[in-house]
Amino acid sequence: MTLHDAEPSNLRVLRDSLSATDEYYRTGNRRFKDVGLLADRILDYFSIMPEDFDRLKELDEEIRHFRRITVTLKDVTELKAKIEAVREFEDPGEIKANLKAKYEHGEITLDEYTEGIERAAQMVSEEIVQYEQKKLKIMHIANHYYIPLILSGEAERISYIKHIIQESSEIEFINKLERYLKKPGNKFEDFDWWMFSKLDESLDEVYIPYYNPKSNGIARFKPDFIFWLQKGSEYFIIFIDPKGTAYTDYQYKLDGYKEIFEENNSITKKLNYEKLNTGVFTFLSTPDDNKLSKGYKKYWFDNMEKVLRCIQTSAHLIP
After folding, report:
1. pTM of the entire structure?
2. Residue 278, Cβ neighbours under 10 Å: how many?
3. CA 209/CA 239 separation, integer angstroms
4. According to the model, what pLDDT value does residue 1 have?
5. Domain locations in the chain?
6. Which of these, 16, 145, 168, 210, has the minimum number of CB atoms within 10 Å of its CB?
């Protein structure tokens, strides 16, 4: 005990584990010549305090990166004006329909009707600004956690603005999502309500804890996006990480997710929150699902249609 600076409780667990090696250990090709070092590693593992899931709660300040967007430009007049224009966007078709109804009911004058039609014609849902020969794209996506959404229009990172969407995988995901939302009959229309948000790894506190054997400790899996969807009494929380298998630790991250949010037979747990049946899902992106181990293929996606069909099937919501 003194040699390895171990607590008596950890030594008891070590003794118990040696009598049930199939339950506690996985064998491999790596050899340890220093048995003392191996013992230290095992004792370190048994001393790890895992983070456990407590309960579902409403967001407070867990997503906060959009309050920290900083710009280092001297003149931001054009940027502010275009952000404000996109932020105030309303669907022109809905504006015109409301104006027509009010005019026909005598609630507004012809001048007010005409002025409203002109305002609707000036609505913009997207703007492009360029500084230092690098473009920014400002987007209005009504279902995003905050409006507008700002992302880089360049292949390389932009230095004059912080905490926007700059990773190529994330930009590609947003562009694909925008195109999908424009399709009539897309699967989002099957839900009563939905929203999503970008997550910033450096500032936001939304994560899934997992054991990382490389560091022999608990790490935090912070996916790039989170979605919330509701259909009747069924509520879904979806984590999406477009980087996917580009990072070799994806198996450990998914193991952490499965440990908390799935039953032993890989069925999503039903969590109750304010009379809602809630399920938590995680999906990664990969250009080649043949690289995935068999036990992880269900978490792969290459389009939102597959993701939404998967959660609908899990809740028996396929129309």
Report:
1. 0.81
2. 20
3. 13
4. 43
5. 65-166, 167-319
6. 16
Return the pLDDT at 154.
Answer: 77
How confident is the chain (319 residues) per 10-residue block, as mean pLDDT? Answer: 51 59 60 59 56 78 92 92 94 94 94 94 93 91 92 84 91 92 93 96 92 83 95 95 71 90 86 90 77 77 89 79
Which residues sit opposite 228 in a β-bridge?
195, 237
Q: How far is CA 56 from CA 23, 127, 235, 241, 289, in A?
A: 31, 37, 12, 21, 32
Crossing angle of helices 8-18 and 35-46, rounded to 10°? 110
How far is residue 25 CA from its own chain's centroid?
33
Predicted confidence at residue 309, as pLDDT, reads 92
The contacts found for 101-109 with CB under 8 angstroms, 24 or more apart, are none
Pairing of the two strands 276-285 and 193-198: unpaired
Would you state the pLDDT for residue 3?
45
Task: Select from 77, 71, 129, 119 the least CA-distant residue to 95.
Answer: 119
Cβ-based burial of 155 (10 A; exposed 0-12, middle 13-18, buried ≥19): exposed
Which string of b and e fits 227-261 if b means at least 16 CB within 10 Å? bbbebeebbbbbbbbbbbbeeeebebbbbbbbeeb
Residue 35: the pLDDT is 55
Q: How far apart are CA 34 and CA 32, in angstroms?
A: 5
Token reading at 186: 């897309």
Question: Looking at residue 11, what is its pLDDT?
Answer: 55
Q: Residue 117 burial by CB count (10 A; 0-12/13-18/19+): exposed, middle or buried? A: middle
